[in-house]
Specification:
Layout (H helix, E strand, L loop, with lengths): L4 H13 L5 H13 L5 H22 L2 H31 L4 H6 L4 E5 L4 E3 L7 E12 L4 E3 L4 E2 L2 H4 L9 E13 H10 L1 H34 L1
Antiparallel strand pairs: 1-6, 2-6, 3-4, 3-5, 3-6
Length: 227
Amino acid sequence: MNLDPFSIDLNSWFVAHATWRELPGYIGACLVFASFMMRRMIPLRALTAASNVFFIIYAYVEGQYPTLFLHALLLPLNGVRMYQMTRLIRRVKRVVGTDHAMAALKPYMKRRKCRTGDILFRKGDVADELHFIVSGGFRVTEIGLTLPPGQFVGELGLLAPSGRRTQSLECVADGELLTISYEHVTELYFQNPDFGFHFLQLTTSRLFQNLDVMQAELEALRRQLRK
């Protein structure tokens, strides 16, 4: 029976050199390789931590103390990072559907009274503030959408590439707003993961809301054209 000489040499080398003492090292190497295949951070950290354990065993058995020292340091680091990420995910899940954003912003907000007919900002103006409607009525002029109390408005300007207002806002019924500068919003976004996730939900919800209004107007226009 003819066998590939290379495979015979490789097998012979492995049998001659591989021992049970080296098995933890090979397992650790395989786990490191598998971690590079992970796309999610928590499984990656878990595999890396497991590889640290096997490398520690291997280094202790073989007397490779610098390797033992390195992985003894990396193991708790990977454990801490994995714990922080799982805790962050739990916190984000708790934030969904709550008024956490309002609680985080309220200490930085200032009250502002508005009269019917006041224009808070026009499309194209420099965007520098976020508003929360306490009372009264406010209409997004371009799409004719009236916003009731309890809603944020002006958040899209913070994300606009130009840094300018994407729509106009008019007061249609005497009311009151709470106002906060984008500078404070940006600080909270980066310092508070709960608020950051809630703010993303807020802006996404407003984009879908605007899209629904535009689709309704488009359908109405199509019906008129058919008539």
